[in-house]
Amino acid sequence: MHNPQSPLESAGIPREKRRAMRFDFETPLTRRGTGCIKYDRRPELDPFWVADMDFASAPCILEALHRRVDHGIFGYAQAHEGLNDAILTYLRERRGALVPLEHITHLGGLVPALSLAARAFCGNGEAVMTCTPVYPPFLGVHHDAKVNLIQVDHVRGGEGWTFDWDGMEQAVTPATKVFLLCNPQNPLGRVFPEQDLVKLAEFCERHDLILVSDEIHCDLVFDEDATPHVSALNLPGRFADRCITLLSPSKTWNIAGLGYAYAVIPNDSVRRRFNAARGHTLSEINALSYYAAESAYRDGEPWRRELVTYLKGNRDALVDFIRSHCPGLSVRPGDATYLAWIDASALGLENPALHFEKKAGLFLSDGAFFGWPGHFRFNFGCPRPRMLEGLEKIAAALPRA
Known about the structure:
The protein has about 400 residues and is of the alpha/beta class. It has helices at about 5-10, 15-20, 35-40, 60-70, 80-95, 110-120, 140-145, 165-170, 195-205, 270-275, 285-300, 300-325, 350-360, 385-395; strands at about 45, 105, 125-130, 150-155, 155, 160, 175-180, 210-215, 245, 260-265, 330, 340-345, 360-365, 365, 375-380. The longest helix has 25 residues, at about 300-325.
């Protein structure tokens, strides 16, 4: 299938009028046959796995891409002035950080950045540390650097998921060089409070670790008053020299396939080591991705706000459904992201995701890949009726006593 059309385009609605219409998170879009991983990797299954959403990107982004495509030339690209200005404005207004442009390193994605950090700051016999469950590449990038991995489970605190501080102190070694943080946390959906992040930075300072903070979901926080996202950029100044903050508009504005992210690295020596680790291993950044990112940050805020409201409704409906109709499953409402972490350990299944694949035809993310077997991750970034259909399939496939 080539050049898939949106429903509005198929209906003959001009581009200008499409842009002026209210944002639509209910109209289902056909994705099968477009070469997308989510639907075409296992086309026989109903997918609620990989972290992209079933919503068209914001109209302002589609317009920016159309304008860039209409230019007709797609040679090697670099970050242009408009993008740089949009990023600095975003960092100032949304993240509360005044960042000089020279502190920014543009990247083709955040997973390569995790790998770069492991390769840049770890040598033979040394180690990367992280806390589980966590996005699977966190548990794999140490292989790129041929170093060791130390993992410590997150624990439940009185107000939500937190760090096992005693466990981390027992696990860290003099050979540990990098701590990989995911905040907001994928798959737990936790937005860590400021006191936890300061305590983590103190842990890294005490053990001389580089703190790499992946904040790709930071614009998908449901209640920014109750659980404000505190960036590594907001930590007390003494920690800045050991922090690498990773950001991207990709998850929030559903443009992950365009491949763009960036790192903010205040310390010149740390930044040079990070960039030197790239060698010749990373490809050029997509020419279109720069313009999509600029438009997201410059014009995408109204769409983002409506998206977060819709996703919060999905989260609430999912939690209610699991608690009301799915005995043996449990879920805690996440603070952020469109990903639900569901505990199926009470069912006694060796592999819950595989069970629901065989019994319900669902494609879910297996908790074992995140470091926690007995769980699965469910992607609710889709129209609510579709989400509820998936949950009904889970309920119907539950093992019966």
